[in-house]
Hints:
Helix content is about 45%, strand content about 10%. By secondary structure, it is α/β, with parallel strands linked by helices.
Amino acid sequence: MQTPTISAEGHQLPTAIEPRNPGMALDLDWVRTAQANTSAIERRAKTLPGRRSVKKDYQAAWLCKAISLIDLTTLSGDDSEGRVERLCAKAAQPVRADILDALDMTGLTTGAVCVYHDMIETAVSALKGTGIPVAAVSTGFPAGLSPYHLRIAEIGESVKAGAEEIDIVITRRHVLQGNWKALYDEMAEMRAACGDAHIKAILATGELGTLRNVARASLVCMMAGADFIKTSTGKESVNATLPVSLVMIRAIRDYYDRTGYRVGYKPAGGISKAKDALVYLSLIKDELGDRWLQPDLFRFGASSLLGDIERQLEHHVTGHYSASYRHAMA
């Protein structure tokens, strides 16, 4: 899951190999004592957009950083080989060459390309030689309600097809019923089915009811060996939000403090503007630190976000905004 790390100056830097989270025994005492002060979390989240502001060259550098953290995604029922191939070309060359030249930026790519299982081989072929991994959604995405043995088999098939990252969906009822042992066992078996492929656990936070449930589900998935915890499938009515993000990344920090293992974070769904990406990056920097601002520990699940960032970078270079249709994804 190691992808190139790009500095603000546009140079490729080595990324330290992070020990993979091995998981741990289910600690129900820890899980049941996890709480979330909703009013305090919401107050903190409201202040976030105004707490940090970067302008000019600094903003351009942060936006390039955001690009390197995007899982460029297409998850539509009408996906075709041609669309996925064009998306992969965009992942390898996410910003027009003249803009990158003006920024003195080289080697910039997105963090990964995320597709359905049926498009894995197409994406792997299109990305050959780029170093960009393919992520696949799995386990009956987005509802996660197909027969359990088929969900496990789907993971194996996606790994066999060449996916280096697997985005799985948890069974939401385990969280809503407080059945933490069932969630732990499910997550652990899915992690085992991934083998060497890294696993991102999608919590579907918009369907979990409370922030306390989000905190507890985050801990259980990490205890079971999740490499990443992810907010949403992008198909729920409520996807990534700042309050949910604050809860999840504090759970990540707590897990790291207790175990010494870093787990990644992926907000997905609803993040489409460059200014929103900057808020999330500042939140990660404040709460988790610079180490989490690398593609092996942070990703945006997005597609239209890249187009808006490219528009902002063109404005930085030329002083003019271009029409959004000039920055198509695929």
